[in-house]
Specification:
The protein has 153 residues and is an alpha+beta fold. The protein has one domain (20-132). 64% of the residues lie in helices and 13% in strands. It is built from 5 helices and 4 strands; from the N terminus they run αββααααββ. The strands form 2 sheets. Strands 1-2 form a two-stranded antiparallel ribbon. The protein has a two-stranded antiparallel sheet with strand order 3-4. The longest helix has 38 residues, at 51-88. It is rod-shaped. The two termini are 25 Å apart.
């Protein structure tokens, strides 16, 4: 019996050591404790029980994608106008370039704050995860002897 309790106790400590906290880098990528990038689908699965953090993370991903669409379409329009001007001997700055510069100037402010939103969502997840799982180990005594009390909150 004592041997079985010791094995269970070691197993529970082992599980507690491997509880993963998430981190973010400056580019808005989510990393686990092994410093490997976690896919956005897996992050959404982890945040499924935390609706406010999931909403903030999803909003940040939408913001990043929308900013990327504006920036890359602006660059594409500028290069398209440049290629048209080079092949047909026309003046370079035409309407396509103006629209391209406008798209870039709209896309950059949209994209600027997405990494901060991801970081806020992950920090909220980590703080709630720590608060939601409190493990307490106590040594208790009674007239029959000593014992170990392990409680999970």
């Amino acid at each position: 019996m004592k041997h079985n309790l010791l094995i269970v106790f070691i197993f529970l400590l082992h599980i507690n050591c491997y509880s993963q906290l998430l981190k973010t880098n400056s580019y808005g990528s989510v990393l686990n404790e092994d410093k490997t990038i976690v896919k956005p689908e897996d992050v959404k699965k982890l945040l499924a029980n935390y609706p406010t953090q999931l909403n903030e993370y999803s909003l940040a991903i939408k913001k990043r994608n929308l900013g990327n669409i504006f920036i890359y379409s602006g660059v594409g329009l500028i290069f398209t106008d440049l290629l048209i001007s080079l092949t047909k001997d026309l003046d370079f700055p035409k309407a396509l370039s103006a629209v391209g510069f406008g798209a870039i100037s709209v896309g950059v402010p949209i994209k600027l704050g997405y990494s901060k939103k991801i970081q806020n969502a992950i920090n909220g997840y980590n703080s709630k995860k720590e608060l939601g799982y409190n493990q307490k180990l106590e040594i208790i005594g009674n007239p029959s002897g000593l014992g170990i009390k392990l409680s999970f909150n």
